[in-house]
Design goal:
about 280 residues, alpha+beta, five-stranded antiparallel sheet, four-stranded antiparallel sheet, binds FE2/S2 (inorganic) cluster
Length: about 280
């Protein structure tokens, strides 16, 4: 049984090292989770083997005595306990050391995830890649042309050059809902009067409440709705909050139409993206 316990502890050490290495090398979360799980399980198995085979398992009944034990009895009991501990630790001393090594390596490996704490690693939450002149494209990179949408329909768009597998993180924050409305319905502030050519409007797809993606467009009242907590935004007046817990209007992207009929950004987003409590890198 000594060998069995030792093998479990060795496996715990190997798995802990594998976890630390996987974390340092940015291995998949499955590998990290599996190695950490094996390490913890191995330590647990070693402890079970240890407790079942090397710890005294006799049932002891301690009689209640009305009086304090005699000094001789107390000394004899202490001697017995100390001799038992000496016997266990003397015979299995190396196993104890191996157990301590396994727990130590696992403890050190557990420190590796600490490096993921702290500020947003990418530093781009709330930022966007929209710049003046950027062409609006769909998620497959094809341009969104000014004749693409009927009045009362919507599409999701991204800045050209920021779509595809490598850009999956930026796509989440860059996404805008493009809505086409009848131009004479518009009630945009005067400063944004030129932001909606041919009735095209574009708003950030990230809800300003807690950051859920907007997904619902209500054509009748011209509203965008967040499915998480039902915040509703007015499409016609610059994305103001009509209802719900969101406290800030949707950021709007000014648009224009180039000579080839493509929709392009007329500038940057009107405000930072997402909830106020996100780290906007300020
Ligand atoms: S995240 Fe949109 S309403 Fe809460």
């Amino acid at each position: 049984m000594t060998i069995v316990a030792a093998l479990w502890l060795l496996l715990a050490i190997v798995a802990s090292v594998a976890f630390a290495a996987g974390f340092a090398l940015d291995a998949s979360t499955q590998i990290e989770g599996a190695s950490l799980g094996v390490a913890c399980l191995s330590v647990a198995c070693a402890l079970i083997v240890w407790s079942r085979n090397f710890m005294p398992n006799a049932t002891a009944v301690d009689e209640q005595h009305p009086k304090r034990s005699t000094d001789d009895d107390r000394d004899a009991t202490l001697d017995e306990l100390e001799s038992g501990v000496r016997q266990i630790t003397a015979r299995k001393n190396w196993l104890v050391r191996l157990g301590l090594a396994a727990v130590s390596v696992l403890g050190i490996a557990a420190l590796f995830p600490i490096r993921t704490f702290g500020p947003n690693p990418s530093g781009r939450i709330g930022a966007s890649d929209w710049r003046k002149g950027a062409r609006l494209v769909r998620d497959d990179g094809t341009p969104l042309r000014a004749d693409a949408l009927e009045i009362g329909s919507v599409a999701t768009a991204f800045p050209e050059g920021f779509v595809g597998g490598e850009k999956i993180e930026s796509m989440a924050s860059d996404a805008v809902m493009v809505v086409r409305v009848t131009p004479h319905e518009l009630k945009l502030p005067a400063a944004r009067s030129g932001w909606a050519p041919a009735g095209y409007l574009a708003y950030s797809k990230i809800c300003t409440h807690l950051g859920c993606p907007l997904g619902l467009y209500r054509q009748g009242p011209q509203q965008l709705m967040c499915p998480c907590h039902q915040s509703i935004f007015n499409v016609l007046d610059g994305g103001s909050v009509v209802f719900g817990p969101a406290a800030r209007a949707l950021p709007q992207l000014p648009l224009n139409i180039d000579s080839d009929g493509n929709l392009r950004a007329g500038g940057e987003m009107s405000d930072f993206i997402g909830p106020d409590n996100w780290d906007h890198g300020a």
